[in-house]
Amino acid sequence: MDILTAIQQNPPLETETTAAYSKRLSNFMHITPTAVVRRMCRLMKKNRFREGINGVREFLSSGIQSTVVEKNEIAQDFDWREATFHLQGLQKQFGKSKRSTNYPKIKIDTTDPICVVLLADLHMCSWGTDYELFKQITDELIHTEGLYTILAGDLLQMAIKLRGVLEVSDNALPPKWQMAFLDSWLKEVHHKVLFSTWDNHSVMREENQSGISMYAHIFENHGLYSNGIAHADLEVGKQLYKIAASHFFRGRSMYNPVHGQIRYSKWEGQDRDILMAGDSHVPGVLSYTEGGREKLAMNCGTLQTNSGYAKRFFSLTTHPKFPCVVLFPDEFRFVPFNSVADWLRFRKGH
């Protein structure tokens, strides 16, 4: 909209200042107040009226406003300030609709210790997945009191990189129904899920193909998604545990399955107590001390126990192990276990 039309449709009030008027016009025209003043002064100069709001009033009272035309409006130079005004408006709008966070805050009111199991690389809807074990893990999670989970990605197979017929053929369900499978499963377990992270099999592959991810969207709808490295503060009873979780951390080592977690702790997550990841399908747990602070690094295995790709390039054996950690509510103490089964045996005194 040109400044002439804006002034005619929104004349200044009797007591209105130039600053207040330009701000009101800027909201109407969707440009910055500075741009409004610049256009207004340009219009006043063309018609030999005083600049500012008095010139606007004189201009409107002259009765000749219909004969004035701003000839150079279309030919204006690009204005980065005006563009920034609009970009900030879009950022504000997009921010209102954002449903993911890289800083989850979870509180569990309890007087008993809880157990958090790291689940990732389930590869649901692959032909090579152990579905009997998947059902057992799900039922164990749902029905075990005090057991919760952090989901660290690659829950679906989503073989959509189109590198070859064999790869795509590993989809036991097409992508649409893999997402339906995930959504249905989350409806059963979401009350036991503390949060989830991004991954490469679904999120990155979908984003590379289309720019968006339905996997991320499903988790956002459940209020459980972190799109980056999650720095979560988990309050258990009276104790606060600081967790860093991601699908993987850079710096993988063939000698140590939790090397990436330790590297991240040293450079970026110095305040984190527990670091979790998956991706490599190699389970590992390491308790260590860094700068006088107790730390725990965890990596999980996979349910994709019959992967032809893994058997050719990595190992003939795959370990469906998912480590867990017990967090105490009355003292700052965390105790890792190689599996939920080991924790349950310990809890029973065996």
Task: Describe the secondary-structure layout.
Layout: H1 3-9, H2 18-29, H3 33-46, H4 53-61, H5 80-96, E1 105-108, E2 114-119, H6 131-143, E3 147-151, H7 165-169, H8 175-189, E4 193-197, H9 200-210, H10 214-221, E5 225-226, E6 230-236, E7 239-245, H11 259-267, E8 274-277, E9 284-290, E10 293-299, H12 308-313, E11 324-327, E12 334-337, H13 340-347
Parallel strand pairs: 1-6, 2-3, 3-4, 4-5, 7-8, 8-10
Antiparallel strand pairs: 2-11, 6-7, 9-10, 11-12
Helix pairs in contact: 2-3, 8-10
3D structure, described in words:
It is a single chain. This protein is of the alpha/beta class and 350 residues long. Helix content is 38%, strand content 18%. It has 13 helices and 12 strands. It has helices at 3-9, 18-29, 33-46, 53-61, 80-96, 131-143, 165-169, 175-189, 200-210, 214-221, 259-267, 308-313, 340-347, and strands spanning 105-108, 114-119, 147-151, 193-197, 225-226, 230-236, 239-245, 274-277, 284-290, 293-299, 324-327, 334-337. It starts with a helix and ends with a helix.
